[in-house]
Amino acid sequence: MFRTLTLICLMATVLSGCQLLPETSVAPAAPAQPTTETVSNASADTCPVTLPPDPPFTPPSPYPQYAPSAGEFWYGTDSLWTIVPGNGVWAALPHNPEGYTQKVFWWREGYSWEAEPEPQLSVTGRRLDESAPPLNVSRATNAFAADIQSAMLVGVDFPTLGCWEISGRYAHAELSFVVWVAP
Q: Cα separation of 8 and 16, whole Å?
């Protein structure tokens, strides 16, 4: 019981207070000023966002007991999957000096958060509609809760708004999806 409560508290802390800092940082930078960046609707219309597959992907047992939130869907294969927004848009993300922040969970059949607390998951990203600095990605960590089971977690900071492809690689599996990062 104590171990379960400790894990739940740890996950709550990670999920609520996670802030990405460059590895060389000693202290957080001063808060960022609100951005004045604008995004063209024409670009949003041409972004090839990842939409729900037909038929939908269903993770292997025991994962189906967790259903993504309304407006999201499972995307991938048994070898590597994630949750993607149903309309392909991540909007109103928190903004910090590194960019627009999002946490991305990844799953793989047989992954154990206890056996691999620092998973060998590699995540990259690139903007498709314009040139931009690369996606800033945290080191992968483990996650566990009764509803989501064993998962891998990375934080990403998009340096700009726009059309972004995110790719994950774990062992021999690769998975990419495209999202529109909106104001």
A: 12
Sequence ranges of the domains in the chain: 40-182
Residues 2 and 107: their CA atoms lie apart, in Å, by 26
Nearest to 7 by CA among 123, 139, 104, 147: 147
Chain segment 121-150, per-residue pLDDT in tens: 999 999 999 999 999 999 999 988 877 888
- The CATH number assigned to the domain with range 40-182 reads 2.60.40.10
Q: Which regions of 15-92 does DSSP assign to beta strands (E)?
A: 72-77, 80-85, 89-91
| Rounded CA separation 114/144 (Å) | 9
Name the pairing type of β-strands 99-107 and 141-145. unpaired
Place of tokens 């024409």: 42
**For residue 51, is pLDDT > 60?**
yes
Predicted TM-score (pTM) of the model is 0.75
SS3 content of the chain, % helix, strand, coil (to 5): 15, 40, 50
Residues 6+ apart with CB under 8 A from 26: none
Rounded to the nearest 5°, which phi and psi values hold at 125?
-155, 150
